[in-house]
């Protein structure tokens, strides 16, 4: 008899076989009458495996002197594994080993689950792009690869603001194309249409400007101050369909931005999933009618006097690819609050998202950003809180760029 059964040397084999004969016959009869289904067989295999693990743990914990064959027990009986010929002493088995195996298995399952979720998200995005996901296709050609898409939120009456940015931190013409091709940094002014039947004077003026500058992303959206949350949803949906980028940024057209610093900051988060970057705040929910930033649905945030959940300030923020894809896929059912930055925060608050509070994205205008630059801490973005942007930005943007700008060559030296 094999050495594995040596602790039970007193067992009467013939008697055991005699006693088991009726059971074997009964088992055969049951098998003949009701064959097991595949699910039942799978469940039985899993139960047997678990019972085997538990039994192995118990055998390992048996004291050495409990066996009648003291020599074999003291020396430890070696058992060959079914795969690979691995050998292990029974006396070396320990519950911690089983716990480690369970932990490693759990980690492997979590890793597989994340991989499957990523694939499902990518598949859903592709369906949305091709129009197979129940929505309307936004782009007919495959999205262009990019590192970051920077959408500058603008309005029909903001031509002078746009020109002030083109004269400072937004490249023009071939420089803009070169930045896209060589660094993967896409910059577009984001705007919809006026809503006038057949296109009004505002739409025609914008068409003329677009033909000249070629730096717009036109949305299927009717412009309006109280429609900013809708515009944000449509911007991310359109951007995801047009560019396959690692990050998507929204910035207002009265904010000064250093492209090199922004790219450098975002590159640090490139390997992290579901990242939401900006200056996080939690302002009061304003229930009074007639005041700026009034929230008609204030009651949803609890009692009067409560504050909003943490979210990035609306002047500038960035979200990673998978979050932009989430908004693109679910945009028809994403609720819109009065304030656009609150809406974005609400869309992400219930997800597994890493909120990155980056204070270099909300520096004040000179002398604040100028002092930080001299100290070697160049700001990503600068604006005035009192104006929710740069006060008198058309007149001051050039001065701010000179005082707080990183220099034209900075963006080309960033490792992306």
TrEMBL record:
It is a single-pass type II membrane protein. It is found in: Golgi apparatus membrane. The keyword Cell membrane does not apply. It comes from the Eukaryota. GO terms for molecular function: galactosyltransferase activity. Pfam families: DUF4094, Galactosyl_T. Its EC number is 2.4.1.-. Gene3D superfamilies: 3.90.550.50. Its main location: Golgi. PANTHER family: BETA-1,3-N-ACETYLGLUCOSAMINYLTRANSFERASE, HEXOSYLTRANSFERASE. Belongs to the glycosyltransferase 31 family. This is Hexosyltransferase. It comes from Panicum virgatum (Blackwell switchgrass).
């Amino acid at each position: 008899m094999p050495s594995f059964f040596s602790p039970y040397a007193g067992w009467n084999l013939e008697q055991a076989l005699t006693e088991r004969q009726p059971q074997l016959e009964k088992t055969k009869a049951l098998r003949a009458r009701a064959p097991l289904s595949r699910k039942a067989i799978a469940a039985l295999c899993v139960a047997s495996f678990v019972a085997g693990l538990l039994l192995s743990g118990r055998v390992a914990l048996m004291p050495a002197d409990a066996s009648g064959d003291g020599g074999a027990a003291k020396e430890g009986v070696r058992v060959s594994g079914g795969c690979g010929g691995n050998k292990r002493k029974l006396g070396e088995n320990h519950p911690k080993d089983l716990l480690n195996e369970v932990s490693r298995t759990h980690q492997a399952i979590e890793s597989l689950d994340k991989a499957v979720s990523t694939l499902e998200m990518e598949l859903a995005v592709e369906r949305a792009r091709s129009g197979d996901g129940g929505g309307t296709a936004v782009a007919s050609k495959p999205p262009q690869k990019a590192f970051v898409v920077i959408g500058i939120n603008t309005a029909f009456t903001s031509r002078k603001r746009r020109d002030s940015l083109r004269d400072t931190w937004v490249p023009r013409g071939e420089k803009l194309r070169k930045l896209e091709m060589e660094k993967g940094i896409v910059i577009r002014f984001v705007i919809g249409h006026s809503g006038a039947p057949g296109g009004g004077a505002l739409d025609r003026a914008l068409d003329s400007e677009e033909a000249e500058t070629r730096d717009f992303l036109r949305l299927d959206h009717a412009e309006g101050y109280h429609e900013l949350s809708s515009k944000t949803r449509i911007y991310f949906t359109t951007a995801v369909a047009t560019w396959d980028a690692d990050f998507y940024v929204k910035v207002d057209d009265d904010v000064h931005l250093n492209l090199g610093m922004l790219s450098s900051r975002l590159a640090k988060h490139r390997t992290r999933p579901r990242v939401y970057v900006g200056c996080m705040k939690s302002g009061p929910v304003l229930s009074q009618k007639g005041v700026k930033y009034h929230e008609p649905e204030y009651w949803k945030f609890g009692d009067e006097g409560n504050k909003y959940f943490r979210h990035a300030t609306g002047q500038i923020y960035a979200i990673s690819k998978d979050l932009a894809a989430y908004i693109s896929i679910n945009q028809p059912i994403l609720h819109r609050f009065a304030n656009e930055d609150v809406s974005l925060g609400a869309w992400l608050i219930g997800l597994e998202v890493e909120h990155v509070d980056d204070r270099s994205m909300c520096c004040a205008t000179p002398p604040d950003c100028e002092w930080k630059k001299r100290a070697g801490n160049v700001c990503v973005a600068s604006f005035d809180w009192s104006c929710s942007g740069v006060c008198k930005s058309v007149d001051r943007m050039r001065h701010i760029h000179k005082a707080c700008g990183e220099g034209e060559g900075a963006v080309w030296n960033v490792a992306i």
